[in-house]
Amino acid sequence: MLINESDLMNLDQIQRVNIVNSITGIKPANLIGTKSSRGDSNLAIFSSVVHLGSRPALIGLLSRPSQGKKRDTLRNILSTRFYTINHVETDMIARAHSTSAKFDEGISEFSACGFAEEQIGDFYAPFVKSSKVKIGMELVDEIKIEANRTTFVIGRVKLISIADEIVEKRGHLNLETGRSAGISGCNTYYSLEKLKKFPYARPDDIDKIISEFGS
User: Fold this and answer.
1) Which of 63, 73, 88, 138 could disulfide-pair with 151, CB 3.0 to 4.6 Å?
2) Would you say 85 and 139 are in contact if contact means Cβ atoms under 8 Å apart?
3) Which of 101, 130, 120 minimizes the C-alpha distance to 42?
4) Following DSSP, what letter does each residue of 51-93 receive, concatenated?
5) Angle (nearest 5°) at CA 183 between 27 and 194
6) Are 99 and 58 in contact (CB under 8 A)?
7) Rounded to whole angstroms, how far apart are CA atoms 135 and 59?
């Protein structure tokens, strides 16, 4: 299959969406927990969470354009400045995916989709209790992308909760042990398999790395 830009724009909308959302490969599946200024909790599945740096620890999150639809997650982040990122495990993908449904205002996706809320200390936003990796975030910047009317949210890591059994030496997380799930496209979920852990790559070590670990 070879598709140029003109072909892409003339495809059936669903086919175009599925192709473009899948070509970047498997992305992390995360549940974003927020609470409105009135105290109403909200939970939504996202596949656009990306590491931006470790000093300071920053993580980016892309929010799709509203196009007349309510975006409770973005609204809550902008109004309260706090939110949580929670890994989706493979045994919770059906419930996690269900958070993408358009629930009426006032209905929490936590309760509607079978997730227990967890408050950690005095952190404002709720966490997913069953997640093995939970990150408390504070908004530091928002970037409006005019090309497609999306919003890129940049947050600072304020709190991290990780299940002990998935933490390896020097802070590496074993996401296979943690059963973290990935997403391709909008609705296809994958399990993760740990293949190999490589040493830091230096030009003089390339031949050794390839011969020792395989191509």
Assistant:
1) 63
2) no
3) 101
4) EEEETTEEEEEEE---TTS--HHHHHHHHH-EEEEEEPBGGGH
5) 65
6) no
7) 10
Phi, psi (deg, nearest 5) at residue 4: -90, 175
State how far the Cα of 191 lies from the Cα of 90, in Å rounded to an integer: 6
- Residues recorded for the chain: 215
Backbone CA torsion sign across 121, 76, 158, 24: positive
The DSSP secondary-structure symbol of 95 reads: H
The predicted pLDDT at position 159 comes to: 97
DSSP state of 153: E
Q: What's the pLDDT at 66?
A: 65
Residues of the chain with pLDDT under 50: none
The two tokens of residue 157 are: 């890591």
Tokens linked to 28: 């992390």
Strand partners for 85: 32, 135
> Which amino acid, one-letter code, is at 93?
I
Inter-residue contact 46 to 146 (CB < 8 Å) = no
Residue 136 tokens read as: 């408390």
**Cβ 89 vs Cβ 96: under 8 Å:** no
User: Is the CB of residue 132 less than 8 Å from the CB of residue 166?
Assistant: yes
Helix (H) / strand (E) element for 21: namely helix 13-22
Query: DSSP letter string over 180-194?
Result: BEEEETTTEEEE---
Instruction: Give the number of other CB atoms < 10 A from CB of residue 97.
Output: 19
